[in-house]
Amino acid sequence: MTRFWKAFATIILFAASSALATAEERWQTLPEPAAMPKADESGYAPVNGIQMYYAVFGKGDPVLLIHGGLGHADIWASQVVTLSKTHKVIVADSRGHGRSTRTGEPYGYDLMASDYLALLDFLKIDKTALVGWSDGGIIGIDIALHHPERLTRLFAQAANVTTDGVDPGVMTNKTFAAHIERSGRDYKKMSKTPDQYDAFVAQISHMWESQPAWTKEELGKITTPTAIVAGDHDEAIKRAHTEYMASAIPGARLIILPNASHFAMLQAPDEYSQAALDFIDAK
């Protein structure tokens, strides 16, 4: 009987765990990115003392996709497939991320924005639409503030403009923890310095402690047509902060993606791509 009850208990536990897995909402998942299509052009651009990995897909009006902190360009695979049908799509690894190198220079959003502007110069692209996720969205806002002549439109998802816009609960969120763990594994596979992930995280963390820090008055000077975007279950950015950003940027459109979180481009790739495309191509 003892053996029977042990087996029965095992079956019950398995059924319960399966039920929990089935019940898991889309916004609680962290899907693997799709396979990145073959690039029309790729390589390393020498910008600001680093070697910045980039890839270009398709033809048409340009769209620059900028990933979030600790991530890399390949998270955009699904968006690249959709957007490159009608646009020239540029992706890159931010300094120190993925395949790009870094220096000992302190991280700052102004510096990272200047990296992307230098990449556009390298690619001879004067003006582009920009889709940015998390840190990528913040970089997009930085460019809109200081170099609006380089942007046609800005689709900023899961961004913040002050550090108090970050939800402290993100530190114990399991989906975000899974992202950090996956990013570490990807770093070891991609980076030219695969054993320096901890040092890289420590270096960029200094930026996150104090940046960004833009005032309402500064945001009010943005002239680039902007969409402020968030998943309705974002783990990292407070909803009230997202709404504040949309109200502070003149004419900004607020887009809330249903049943999605900070990682909406992976959880709802088709919906995300269509939302970005609709905004970019809006007349």
From TrEMBL:
<dbReference type="InterPro" id="IPR000073">
    <property type="entry name" value="AB_hydrolase_1"/>
</dbReference>
<dbReference type="GO" id="GO:0017171">
    <property type="term" value="F:serine hydrolase activity"/>
</dbReference>
<protein>
    <submittedName>
        <fullName>Alpha/beta fold hydrolase</fullName>
    </submittedName>
</protein>
<keyword id="KW-0732">Signal</keyword>
<feature type="signal peptide">
    <location>
        <begin position="1"/>
        <end position="21"/>
    </location>
</feature>
<dbReference type="InterPro" id="IPR029058">
    <property type="entry name" value="AB_hydrolase_fold"/>
</dbReference>
<keyword id="KW-0378">Hydrolase</keyword>
<feature type="domain" description="AB hydrolase-1">
    <location>
        <begin position="63"/>
        <end position="274"/>
    </location>
</feature>
<dbReference type="Pfam" id="PF12697">
    <property type="entry name" value="Abhydrolase_6"/>
</dbReference>
